Amino acid sequence: MALAKEILGSAIIERTSLVSSSSYSKVSVNQSFSRKQSQFLVSPVLVPLEQRKAVHLRKAVRGPVAAVSEDLVRKPAVPSSAPVESKPVKFRVRAVVTVRNKIKEDLQETLVKHLDALIDKIGRNVVLELISTEKDPKTKGPKRSKEAVLRDWSKKSNVKAERVNYTAEFMVDSNFGVPGAITVTNKHQKEFFLEAITIEGFACGPVHFPCNSWVQSTKDHPGKRIFFSNKPYLPSETPPGLEALREKELKYLRGDGHGVRKLSDRIYDFDVYNDLGNPDKGIDYARPKLGGKQIPYPRRCRTGRVPTDTDMQAESRVEKPLPMYVPRDEQFEESKQNTFSFGRLKAVLHNLIPSLKASISAENHEFSGFSDIDSLYSEGVLLKLGLQDELLKKLPMPNVVSRIQENKGILKYDTPKILSKDKFAWLRDDEFARQVIAGVNPVSIERMTVFPPVSKLDAKTYGPQESALKEEHILGQLNGMTVQQALEEKKLFMVDYHDVYLPFIDQINALDGRKAYATRTIFFLTASGTLKPIAIELSLPNTGPSSRSKRVLTPPVDATSNWTWQLAKAHVCSNDAGVHQLVNHWLRTHACLEPFILAAHRQLSAMHPIFKLLDPHMRYTLEINALARQSLISADGVIESCFTPGRYCMEISAAAYKNFWRFDKEGLPADLIRRGMAVPDPTQPHGVKLVMEDYPYANDGLLIWGAIENWVRTYVNRYYPNSSTVYNDRELQNWYTESIDVGHADIREASWWPKLATTDDLVSVLTTLIWLGSAQHAALNFGQYPYGGYVPNRPPLMRRLIPEEGDLEYANFIADPQKYFLWALPSVLQSTKFMAVVDTLSTHSPDEEYLGERQQPSIWSGDAEIVEAFYGFSAEVRRIEKEIEKRNSDPSLRNRCGAGVLPYELLAPSSEPGVTCRGVPNSVSI
């Protein structure tokens, strides 16, 4: 304990409640220093071993941050408050700098690395400078140390470890104070990833700087990089020596709104979605600008590219494999990039082979039977399409061909989880209904309060919108209840896509090979707690007095009605897949969070406590959104190719933003109440009572929502003792104001935006943002391949309407209903392309950080109480995971347990890498 006091400073040891006199975390030997030195890992907070064991921190624990050497500990330390001296005494302190190496380097990178090692020897070094929290009374600026050079760069250039520690030594005066910032100047040719810096030798104990940033060469970015220590400060509490640096760094991150951004830039700015189309390729590739009075939409990260040749309002495209700009530190780290690239490779191969075969023989455009779909998992695309080795040899992609021949399994799809327990589950009505509350899109169901349902569309524009549903359609399905009784007893539920799709149906159905209805599906809640579908309404625009614009189907009674019912369910699932992807997934988590992330980097200093709280929940989101603009939601991209609305996909998303999206309803309890799936109840732990007891998404989600809310409230109360501190925090207010006024500019005047005037307001806003970025996104994303990888279960695209007697196609339907059903589903090319993409999107990378985990968990904040509270939050997340496991084994919960029933694990917090159908990452990272 005496040695711990000497290393950390007795004041810290005595203040923290985390350290007992008999137990503290011992540390491992760091081999990057001399063998003669005895070294110890350092954390500003020492957590009892038994407490750390209870908190299963997985891959977020990134290894040693720095090391303290024994000889340095024995040297006299700079006093924390030096006595008045006629002449300050000089002391030596040391910086331990942790740099993360690339795992794999190409030839050019290796050559530049050797060049940097050479020029480091002749004085073009990495240079550090310490900056005090105190001002110099003479210069009126912050106290600064002499510059120090990073040692041994050239000697360690061949070290193959993922992390390499370097040292630098400073001479500082005894009246220097406490270091609050450090500057880094990279005079090498190549950028490097700076993970952390620890300063040793001050009486206050080690001072940590968690950096996690790319430091560019001065030839690309002249000037010094600024990093602040892990101690959080509200703007009003900023030490005098750091005030100017705090403002300077934020000003740099905002940029000036002009110019084309370089990939090495760190500029965060806003723009509209004017880069989804490519009008230079022709009118078919032009797309409307999203964002503005005509088509409101959230803002995205500005790249500043030049306009297209044919439309000055459209930004020019960057086509893959060229990278899209996002600020340098937002780009995928290496292991994430490798995972994503491998997924893209699979997508290329899955698309390439069907395309080739389709061009050779039109006979292979369609699935001829369900066995053809099964063969994608058992045999693979190669065998399915009959491609021979000689054809592969003719492909102009020798590297890809070699990869195929080495590992033919790359062209064989994994069996989706929906087939793992019951191959025919997707055909059953009970499974169709179960997936509404425990599948990949459990957020569309709502409780019915009136029957028949009523459209909110403008009758002048879309004509009379009375529903075709009548009481006689459902009366026999209500177990003896009247319709009014079923409504009053909260037994009727609905998935209503009428108003979302109807304005676009004529345009969609005019597309080649696309056919859609605007659907409504009615469900009855049985005594066992499960749902059963009792009616499906299919609507087309009312084009005339004799138009058959509305049609109601009920559960089948014979062979013909069985097939029409299956087709109707497929159309419902296609509607559901579109709304899930375009609205609930992309719009509500990816797109609507981006403005808050951009504004956070522009308005909240890295030393702001709220930035430190939000930081892990913003990771990778800008990068994945940029990749989506490039390949997924762009003109003729994957979404348009694979989903029924085609070129109108993003217009549907924008219409939902304008007509349905409200930030004040995005928190889980508010959303459940809005949909009638819960009622307010202050006696319940989360303030709501579910109207459907076995609703897996809501049951598990409320546990996670509560844990996040409690953690956020503890955090907020630590820094904001009263509401005036919230109201008077200029950085905080600027962040929230800019998120709305600029990031959501088109709806900034909406009366429903929450205020940010009290601590409760702040807790609510932050909890909602963290919920959306973590659990809500996970619930909507990581089941895409497990449920959608078998296309008949959730067809993203439909190519045939349901024929009626008298229609030209009716005879074909009657003659071979299975063939007609398969023709209505996506083609081989469309199916395999979709499967490859959702496989990639459902994959966890090895560097995923899950809820309750953080990089450098013991030093991300210099506040010991907050670090302790975070370990408590982590323990609560683990407890929730055990509770979810328990629920999935409870036979009374029939929506998640039973013969052939998949457990509901999409909100189980942890996961292994790969497609697992579980895991809640901290952020929208894929």
Describe this structure as you would to a colleague.
The chain is α+β, with helices and mostly antiparallel strands and 926 residues long. Among the domains are: 90-231, PLAT/LH2 domain (Lipoxygenase-1); 337-419, Lipoxygenase-1, domain 3 (Irregular); 444-578, Nuclear Transport Factor 2, Chain: A (Roll), CATH 3.10.450.60. The chain contains 32 helices and 22 strands. Strands 4, 5, 6, 8 and 11 form a 5-stranded antiparallel beta sheet that branches. Strands 14-15-16-17-18 form a 5-stranded antiparallel beta sheet. A 4-stranded antiparallel beta sheet has the order 7-3-9-10, with no helix packed on it. Helix 7 packs antiparallel against helix 31. The two termini are 45 Å apart. Residues 1-85, 360-364 and 386-409 have low confidence and may be disordered. Its main location: cytoplasm.
